[in-house]
Amino acid sequence: MKTPSASRAERTGQKILDAAMSSLLAKGLKRTSIEAIAALAGVSHMTVYRRWPHKEDLFSDLLSREADELFARVDRELAGTGDPRERLIEGFAAIFWSFYDHPLLAREYAADPATTLRVLTVSSAPVFDRAVDYLAARVAGLMTGDAPIGDDEARRVAEVMVRITHSLLLTTLETRPFANRDEVGAWGREHVGWILFSAD
Question: What is the Cα 200 distance to its own chain's centre?
């Protein structure tokens, strides 16, 4: 059970992240100050600095929160899809497209690609680990051939899939080859679907 102080700290953290999202969408990372974020959140700038010493840390945590919300949304959206192969490919497409088309990521890449790529690589571990955990939990137990996928294999498959998704994102932010999520799904069926059920 959470203590009242932990709950209050969590609420304050969410207020700061909400303020950061608003500020970053309006002004971008370079033109947004920690002081402006603190003022918008109604807290002191030291409250923000204690948790996020650098704006890039805040940007990274915003992407982590967006990932958590995205995973929950994808689960709700695909709950009625019975075919596990189709569910996984559509999940891949939904997750990739949400980052690829995210207004904050698109804005920051256009304004400052070097910083954005640094956040997506050097600071990407929290989002990457969440994504592997999320996918491994959905792959484990699925049938491939005559046997279910075990936990260790599910984790290996999940890591490969997340690395492919991450790499695809990094290599397409500049060229923007996909016009919509359906095109991402078609790419996934052609290029990565076999990884999930290679023993069929």
Answer: 30
pLDDT tens digit sequence for 77-86? 988 887 888 8
> What is the chain's alpha carbon radius of gyration, rounded to the nearest angstrom?
19
Q: CA–CA distance from 18 to each of 10, 57, 88, 129, 190 (Å)?
A: 12, 15, 30, 23, 38
- Cβ proximity of 36 and 23 under 8 Å: yes
Q: 112 pLDDT exceeds 80?
A: yes
Do 200 and 145 touch, CB atoms closer than 8 A?
A: yes
Query: How distant, in Å, are the alpha carbons of 58, 66, 138 from that of 29?
Result: 10, 17, 35
Q: Which of 130, 185, 188 is nearest to 159 (CA)?
A: 130
Q: Is pLDDT above 60 for 4?
A: no
Yes or no: say if 130 and 69 are a contact pair by the CB < 8 Å rule.
no
pLDDT at 170 over 70: yes
